[in-house]
Write a structure and sequence with these properties.
- There is one protein chain.
- With 355 residues, this protein is an alpha+beta fold.
- It is 18% helix and 35% strand.
- It is built from five helices and 18 strands.
- The chain has helices at residues 27-38, 77-91, 176-187, 225-237, 299-309; strands at residues 2-10, 13-19, 48-56, 59-67, 95-99, 104-110, 119-124, 146-147, 156-161, 165-170, 198-205, 208-215, 219-221, 247-251, 254-260, 266-271, 273-283, 288-297.
- β5 (95-99) and β6 form a beta hairpin.
- The radius of gyration is 20 Å and the shape is globular.
């Protein structure tokens, strides 16, 4: 079958994206297409497959996201910005309610993060602290800033659904080997967490957060939008930053601007960058890819994103201001209060310039 696609990314989370509004494939076919096109050893590669799907009475359009292993994710906020851009362009609109697998996300074309960087603002949530719906069978309904011994780590984790499940730990500095070990334990959790979870280690930085994520169905990833949203909410919930204050959230792939409300809604503003547009033949029976044709390259916006991405991220909050678990010292406010810590975090830092 011949498929037209756009290679795109949100904060370095890269995907082949298809307009599937008129396509009727079974889920097992989409799973094969995802595994085939997202294969990093293949001609396209990516963190998964994005689909623009048809809307309904309450939604202008929808999105689906299949991970690189063929499983379907409940939500992918970096990918959603890319689907939103395509949907806006195909429908001639600049804002929409978008139907996702387990939720609705409001999105709108927003002012550019930097010159030439197409930007989408998305509002996800409300975040849920109820782990019984994951399910995570630990004998309690919520799990906030406390160890999960079954992960084999002494770290304190906060469990949040966006609605996809996330475990967030605040650390003084990210140790990728440790993150991979904990992430793999979450993937192999078995009956106590049968649907697995995304795991993130988060550093406090001047102006915001730095998030590194082991993504369910992907592995260690340069970027995960819902993890950045979950980390923002977890930081507010545990008093590390304050609610309703926009911060920068960095990851290895780039950055977004983020804020969380006390009711659980999280707003992200980030890029939706197109790299190239073309077509490819995919054999759904064998998973073979052939005859890839690149018809258009978006060199200008790719360069604009690279300039923004390569700007210097915020420095770590000084070690004197941190405890070993990444909490701000010397006091830990009550969850939900999140007073300002102007001595440690530059709340009013402007978005990084493209230089």
């Amino acid at each position: 079958m011949r498929l037209s696609l756009i290679k795109c990314h949100g904060s370095g989370n890269d995907f082949p994206m298809l307009d599937a509004r008129g396509v009727r494939f079974d889920d097992d076919v989409w799973a094969v297409v995802a595994v085939t096109l997202a294969d990093r050893a293949g001609p396209v590669g990516g963190d998964g497959l994005l689909l623009l799907t048809a809307g309904d009475r309450d939604h202008a359009f929808g999105m689906r996201m299949f991970n690189a292993d063929g499983s379907e994710a409940e939500l992918c906020l970096n990918g959603l910005r890319c689907v939103a851009r395509l949907g806006f362009e195909r429908h001639g609109i600049d804002a929409a309610a978008i139907r996702c697998k387990a939720s609705t996300v409001a999105a709108a074309h927003a002012p550019d993060l930097a010159p030439g960087v197409y930007t989408v603002r998305e509002v996800a949530g409300p975040a849920s602290l109820d782990v019984t719906g994951w399910p995570m069978n630990i004998g309690s309904v919520e799990h906030v800033d406390a160890p999960l011994p079954r992960l084999g780590s002494p770290r304190a984790f906060t469990a949040i659904a966006m609605p996809n499940p996330h475990l967030v730990a605040f650390v003084a500095a990210v140790d990728e080997a440790e993150l991979v070990a904990v992430g793999e334990a979450a993937q192999d959790a078995g009956s106590w967490m049968p649907n697995r979870a995304n795991v993130s280690f988060v550093e406090l930085r001047e102006g915001g957060l730095y998030v590194r994520t082991f993504e369910r169905g992907v592995g260690l990833t340069d970027s995960c939008g819902s993890a950045m949203a979950a980390s923002t909410y977890a930081a507010c919930l545990t008093g590390r930053i304050e609610y309703d204050r926009e911060i920068t959230v960095w990851n290895k792939g780039g950055l977004v601007r983020a804020s969380a409300e006390i009711g659980g809604e999280v707003t992200l503003s980030g890029n939706a960058t197109c790299e190239w547009e073309g077509s490819v033949d995919v054999d759904a029976a064998t998973g073979a890819v052939s005859d890839i044709q690149v018809e258009r390259r978006f060199e200008g916006e790719a360069a604009a994103w690279t300039a923004l991405r390569d700007s210097t991220p915020g420095a770590l909050v000084t070690s004197e201001a941190l405890t070993e678990d990444g909490a701000a010292a010397p006091t830990q406010p009550q969850a939900g209060t999140a007073p300002r810590r102007d001595g440690n975090i530059s709340w009013d830092s402007p978005v990084i310039s493209a230089g």
